[in-house]
Amino acid sequence: MHRRADQGWIEVIVGPMFSGKSEELIRRITRYHLARVPTQTFKPALDTRYAVTEVVSHSRLSTEAIPVATSDDLLKSVDDRTVVVGVDEGQFFDDGLLDVAEILAGAGKNLIIAGLDLDYLGRPFEPIPSLMLRAEYVTKALAVCHKCGGPGLFTQRVVQSDELVVLGATGAYEARCRRCYDPTEASQQTLDVE
Ligand code: ADP
Ligand code: MG
Ligand code: ZN
Hints:
Layout: E1 9-14, H1 21-34, E2 39-44, E3 54-56, E4 62-64, E5 66-68, H2 71-77, E6 84-87, H3 97-106, E7 110-115, H4 128-133, E8 137-140, E9 143-144, E10 151-152, E11 154-157, E12 173-176, H5 185-193
Parallel strand pairs: 1-7, 1-8, 2-5, 2-6, 6-7
Antiparallel strand pairs: 3-4, 9-10, 11-12
This protein binds adenosine-5'-diphosphate, magnesium ion and zinc ion.
Zinc ion is lined by residues 145, 147-148, 150, 176-177, 179-180.
């Protein structure tokens, strides 16, 4: 495929857990794939929740994916002929993902990166916020608040843990709106039980 002058940009899909980021990534990648535009999708090697070599949404949509440990590994794994590069769970990559995205966009590739913009304490979850500032297109997805049905923009941890990342624990998180979000809730629950 020839590189066209209008190719090479960064798209970012952000939002809390359950907001449909992976679904949207899978949808965008699949339509390129169907049109025979060469794509490659990557995921952090630590995310083995549903499958090792696939991105799988909570609604069980999936697309093939290459697990990589670092942003450097990602860069090295991109084929010359690839035009569209998908990345899921971008927040689990090192800050080098920012440079890698810029290098690939500069080389005429279209990046589609999905990831959490906020951690469970409501803090910026780098490198996603920085990527948003360097992206041509930003889509902010919302979930449905698990408590009241309102617009869910936060990820609420509902089990007690001081780890930034609690992976694969089903029922460990809920989407919450600004009224129902309370980052201290999990620790309070634990205190209540004790
Ligand atoms: P993300 O990648 O943002 O975590 P996914 O794309 O994996 O989200 O999953 C989105 C799907 O999650 C929805 O289409 C829906 O089937 C399911 N889902 C479960 N809980 C919720 C919720 N509270 N709000 C919206 N979707 C939810
Ligand atoms: Mg996801
Ligand atoms: Zn709510």
